């Protein structure tokens, strides 16, 4: 194959489309199919016409590549390559080098966020400098201020912006101090000036050109330190304070003549929590019952200030009160997501004391969301609701204790209905779709629909999350409202939908078990003819899960039709068609998940048969592009005569790609008969095998292994310590040519640690040398035989 083009230097404008025409000549003896693609311009959109150029031997054609140059393609000369690939004749891939000269188109845009900032002294703005052209720019910013007392500071003021890049610049406007007065708008006009960073002299560009300009405005709305509203409030507060002082002074004068009285309740006296729990009545130092201020005064007078027993009704001053004495707080905690009760939420009661806020009691909500805090002193409390995966809140719906509503508790009473609503953090549900018997996991759509969340109008909520499985079949549904119960649906084309029910709590990352999808059964149907009319009595067979199944085409009614149903999908099936007196043939049919193929049409020629098989190398890998030629005595005719003179014997080529690489099928051979298959492939020794065809029955199958005409060399490189050495250079030479390989890590090309491999060595004697930095090289002689894998280990020496 020979390629050429007239385009060596192609000028282009950014965003334009250019056409590259490549002339191709088929210099081989085979019909060729040629394709082309562009290398070196990954962001470009390329249209190739035609997609595949068919060429007969010695024929010439053209391939046109329409290349859309990206609008942001940097200016200058860019080397690109047109790669021309032969798909039929197997010719060496050709490359055509072209210089793409892209002209410069500088452009710049200036944006700002926000437009107006309200502040007391200064405002901060973000200026976005975007290079919308294809060449680097040196940018300088300056501000024009209406007021000389206003200052502007850029960070940075000058900068370089590459093509397609947006760079932020911080602008700070600072005005004079304002203690009182009205708000003042201070406007600044921002001007941008940009010049190209460099000029491409090779493209004959001018050394100087006009600078690019852009502009925008920002406003600092400056407010005073003390507003008019604050001044008014201070005046009113002063008036109210003076009035209150006068009022309190008058009340004090009026009440100053009343005698002082003081009464101490029984709860004033300290008592241990254990004594209070026993319920015993206290006695004073004189053996009497203390019952009020009089008893307190008598005890103090008689005992010198120390009482040996507490009065009746005294209560402890810390901890919780005895059962039946203190108060109780009860309520239910609900979830914001589904309005249902939530369990395992920690409820804590705090009260204010001399040491600040103190934790008094705590409890956890039950499964039905209820809680109870008992034995509380008669006072007011603040409640906090918290749990892992939930936002903590204070009763009632406050984010901090300072804004919380207080709950009053009375002795021997219950404050119920103290309910709260907590918000859970978003949850995630992850899982995996197991492909089962399929080699490639199907792409599935996974959705999550809450079962207990309603819309504001009381209707069930729809799908709240949707994703698709990745290449490994895994999926993750994110940002799910929680807590809630969900129905997870997994839908893949050709498979039955799978639905899984699960529940998540606040912030939970739930991992679901793997799901194996089940596909609906498929079917293969079609017709069999003898080339003219439908043919009955044909046995159609295949293999399903290791078991052979077959059907026979009817001889009456729908003559020649067949259907193989209930076939597991996805799968690939080899169908064999045979009939008495007509030989046999095969057909490969692939079924996608849940698919049905009713387009199979088979022709069985009377007195013919078929041969199928696989051509592989010594490693068991299929060989594509091998030529299979049928020769031999031919088939005996039905009356015993020899076949007509000039009968054409078929020739075919093995498949070159896919799972069936190296396979072949030849049909239309006269049967019964004896044939010889000859397999040839460049670089391999030809081989012939005999094949015998019966008058009817399954197609004959042969598996053939070809031997290389060239040899191969493998081995392992070790260092001075005897351990595998990775990265050494191995060179083999026969005096005419040299081959090079590098010792790799384990798993590289199926070799072990330190292994190397050289393929395609002509038979002969080779000098093999291993080299590595700071090591002594080693050389060995190796004999290479055709089709044989030779091994040679190499050891590096230590310097010094």
TrEMBL record:
<protein>
    <submittedName>
        <fullName>Carboxypeptidase regulatory-like domain-containing protein</fullName>
    </submittedName>
</protein>
<dbReference type="Pfam" id="PF13620">
    <property type="entry name" value="CarboxypepD_reg"/>
</dbReference>
<keyword id="KW-0378">Hydrolase</keyword>
<dbReference type="InterPro" id="IPR051417">
    <property type="entry name" value="SDr/BOS_complex"/>
</dbReference>
<keyword id="KW-0645">Protease</keyword>
<dbReference type="InterPro" id="IPR013784">
    <property type="entry name" value="Carb-bd-like_fold"/>
</dbReference>
<dbReference type="GO" id="GO:0004180">
    <property type="term" value="F:carboxypeptidase activity"/>
</dbReference>
<keyword id="KW-0472">Membrane</keyword>
<keyword id="KW-1133">Transmembrane helix</keyword>
<feature type="region of interest" description="Disordered">
    <location>
        <begin position="280"/>
        <end position="313"/>
    </location>
</feature>
<dbReference type="GO" id="GO:0030246">
    <property type="term" value="F:carbohydrate binding"/>
</dbReference>
<keyword id="KW-0121">Carboxypeptidase</keyword>
<keyword id="KW-0812">Transmembrane</keyword>
<feature type="transmembrane region" description="Helical">
    <location>
        <begin position="230"/>
        <end position="251"/>
    </location>
</feature>
<feature type="compositionally biased region" description="Gly residues">
    <location>
        <begin position="288"/>
        <end position="306"/>
    </location>
</feature>
<keyword id="KW-0732">Signal</keyword>
<dbReference type="InterPro" id="IPR008969">
    <property type="entry name" value="CarboxyPept-like_regulatory"/>
</dbReference>
